[in-house]
Amino acid sequence: MFKLIFGLGNSDIKNIEALAKLYAQAGAWMFDVSPFMLPVLHNALIGSSFNPDDFKYCVSVPVEGDVHGKKAKILTQKCKKCLKCQKICPQGAICNLIVDEKKCIGCGICKKKCSHGAIKLYDKTDYFKELKKLIKNNEKIDCIELHSSVANRKEVLKLLSKIAKRYKGAISLCISRKNYSTDEAFKLINQAKEILKDNSDFFVQADGKSMNGGSCDFSSSLESVAFALALKDLGIDEKKIILSGGINAHTKDLCAKFSILPLALAFGTYARKSVQDKNQDEAFKIASELVKNACEACGE
Ligand code: SF4
Ligand code: SF4
């Protein structure tokens, strides 16, 4: 199945509306959106005559310190105006050396590229507060995802407990390979399962090269596939595993090569970038191909 990640920090309404419409037409299964943008997604689908019940809504929140909740800022005193950051940003979020907060997804690619230390990442909004409002208002939420790309199990479990008290639906734990060894991840999963025993379902999102800029090569999704395999070896049902982080058109072949049939492939930057600046027909063709690709990877 195909899951589209809009980007947790992405609050570019036009971009979200266009992507929702395109990937809904192409047959997406799930949309991963921030609590702030859930109404935008919902209205975009209704506005394009889709039935929202045909799609799963996954609302994502970052664990304290997770990069997905951050935004970039250019420090003008240090900036040498080389424009490298502007050219490399996968979201096109930097224009005239100003970061558009709505577009920035906190990937940090610009920060890595800047050799003058002129970019800092800072925390922006209280996602959990917004999520609580959605839960209280009984909005359609099919899954809540915790982005835990922080090497701090305590923080992950703290947020998980707060969510579990308020919400009994499905939970997905997006675990970054960068910050967790297989053993640590397994420990975290078991502790999470203990907290979530009253919830309806539990998934693990095996996050490999998170927010890598959307490159399309075999190595980009290798970490995610390897992580999923390691979890499978430890007894985690592969149909409870979603692959993310560097997922692209080659991921299907890697899944086949290593004989893993995950529940879904979660496409982020690659799926968004591939359809950028394309006409409607071209974009639909690309999106449909990616959805088909994801379904085949999952044995559908
Ligand atoms: S890469 Fe750094 S120095 Fe170059 S324009 Fe961006 S912020 Fe300024
Ligand atoms: S490269 Fe990433 S962190 Fe930097 S401005 Fe673009 S989206 Fe934001």
Question: What is the topology?
Answer:
Elements: E1 2-5, H1 13-26, E2 30-33, H2 38-47, E3 56-62, E4 70-74, H3 84-88, E5 94-95, E6 98-99, H4 109-113, E7 119-123, H5 127-136, E8 143-148, H6 153-166, E9 170-176, H7 182-195, E10 202-207, H8 222-233, E11 241-244, H9 251-257, E12 264-267, H10 269-274, H11 280-297
Parallel strand pairs: 1-2, 1-12, 2-3, 3-8, 8-9, 9-10, 10-11, 11-12
Antiparallel strand pairs: 4-7, 5-6
The chain binds iron/sulfur cluster (SF4) (2 copies).
One iron/sulfur cluster (SF4) binds next to helix 4.
How would you describe what is shown here?
By secondary structure, the chain is of the alpha/beta class. It has two domains: 2-66 and 126-297, Aldolase class I (TIM Barrel); 68-123, 2-Layer Sandwich (Alpha-Beta Plaits), CATH 3.30.70. 38% of the residues lie in helices and 19% in strands. It is built from eleven helices and twelve strands. The chain has helices at residues 13-26, 38-47, 84-88, 109-113, 127-136, 153-166, 182-195, 222-233, 251-257, 269-274, 280-297; strands at 2-5, 30-33, 56-62, 70-74, 94-95, 98-99, 119-123, 143-148, 170-176, 202-207, 241-244, 264-267. The strands form three sheets. Strands 1-2-3-8-9-10-11-12 form an eight-stranded parallel barrel, surrounded by five helices. A two-stranded antiparallel ribbon has the order 4-7. Helix 1 (13-26) packs across helix 2, helix 1 (13-26) crosses helix 11 and helix 6 packs parallel to helix 7 (182-195). The longest helix is centred in the C-terminal third of the chain and has 18 residues, at 280-297. It is globular and about 50 Å long. The protein binds iron/sulfur cluster (2 copies). The site of one iron/sulfur cluster has 13 residues, from helix 4.
